[in-house]
Specification:
Elements lengths: L6 E3 L2 E3 L5 E6 L4 E8 L3 H19 L3 H17 L2 H11 L3 H24 L5 E4 L12 E7 L3 E4 L13 H8 L4 E4 L5 H17 L7 E4 L4 H9 L5 E5 L2 H12 L7 E4 L5 E4 L1 H20 L11 E5 L2 H15 L4 E2 L3 H15 L5 E5 L6 E2 L2 E6 H6 L11 E7 L2 H10 L3 E7 L5 H14 E6 L38 E7 L18 E4 L2 E4 L1
Parallel strand pairs: 5-22, 7-8, 7-10, 8-9, 10-11, 12-13, 12-19, 13-18, 17-18, 19-20
Antiparallel strand pairs: 1-2, 3-4, 5-6, 6-21, 14-16, 15-17, 22-23
Amino acid sequence: MIITGDALIGGKAVKGTGAGVRAYNPALGQVIEPEFRTVDASQIDQACRLADEAFDTFRALSDDKRAYFLETIGEQIMALGDVLVERVMEETSLPRARVEGERGRTVGQLKLFANLLREGSWHDVRFDKALPDRTPPRPDLRMRMIGLGPVAVFAASNFPLAFSVAGGDTASALAAGCPVVLKAHFAHPGTSELVGRAVVKAVEICGLPAGVFSLLTGVGNELGIELVRHPAIKAVGFTGSRGGGLALMAAAAARPVPIPVYAEMSSINPVFLLPQALKNRAEDIAAGFAASLTLGVGQMCTNPGLVLAIDGPDLQRFTAAASHALVGGAACSMLSPGIAGNFARGVNQLAEHADVKTLALAPQAEGKGAPALFVSSAASFLSQHALQEEIFGPASLVVVCKDVAELRQVTEKLEGQLTATLMMDEGDLEAAQSLLPVLERKVGRILANGYPTGVEVCSAMVHGGPFPSTSDGRTTSVGTGAISRFLRPVCYQNLSQGLLPEVLRDNGSATWLRREGELTRN
């Protein structure tokens, strides 16, 4: 498949009219053809209007037909073969194994939501039958979930497949019956076009309205703001920086009809080294921590950017082993020059900070990221909010506490996080129990004796957390729960069987339903 540099609007390839952008090979330091031009306001409007026109038809599809559509997208992505894998590698410098694994995760997410649609619980059907003899009488009440409407999805920089064109936000929105208008990420536009064409092909195969999916190309904040402001858009999915997420939230809130923005933004994912675990296996924990910190050159939203522990010789064993593992690490190409530049600035700021000591700093190189480890006191961390700021890349800060009470005090001051990890042994249960209520308020996923950089795609996964890790801590962007972001409830009171949606009829297709508050399976 030839990459043309086109946007895809309503099933048709179109050229943007604004500023041009080319992909960049981070490893070779070279731009990659072709040029992708930024779509203009009229093209954004066309994509959004087509999505709006497609909404009622698309959401009315049976669960099985929409599931088949998701599966067809996955098949079309796999049909791209090495053309896709090699383009991702060229635009990101990610190794083949990582790209192939991410492609499998992307297709797996589509299948996961297809299975959810066929299973049926997403409808959340509820029946409260009429009680005409009650005083006052109760009407017949039935409820189901429906899609919100067209969704604007912003592709992420760090996962060019799994959080991009056909990634989790797109898969969950389409599963909910919501057409998607996708803003491709400028760092991997060729990858985006290839996957976008796979989605368009699936739309054609399934005979769906062309407005079910559009891909917008280009650069500039104006493109994203214009998209979020369009009256046809009813929700936003975003993975990126805190500044970018806040800008979209402000634009969405300022609309005549405000809409929700589900933004994943920033997280430093604290790792707690509890005393008994540190005493028993400091070196083993350090080795696993170093591997997690440097995975993917640290460009993971669940990267362990903060370590919290109690002072003493066992902590010194950990920092010595972690420093030894990290200081010899090679500088590796990061996803884009912008990410590499931000990482370098963050590392330099910590290295020059008066209250921070450098434990390990591998040789840095332009456009690349090399491991870095720093240490500071709990008092400094508590008094200086700048020490909580995310450094996106393989850098972490160890915060030394005097005792469990100070450890809990630091935990109370943490911002919202995607994850928190408890490294603990049997003797640490009391300390863990004292931290757990705080962590439940602060994070979306609590791990014991693992590392946060593994995010399983399954029903029970939560990839979300209190602000600023996400804009809405009640939601997740990974797992079947992600569909709830793009649904809303509708109640039907005293409608005849012929007017009710099929899933709500007395002999309807609902697999799971609540009758008088009791969950049953048909």
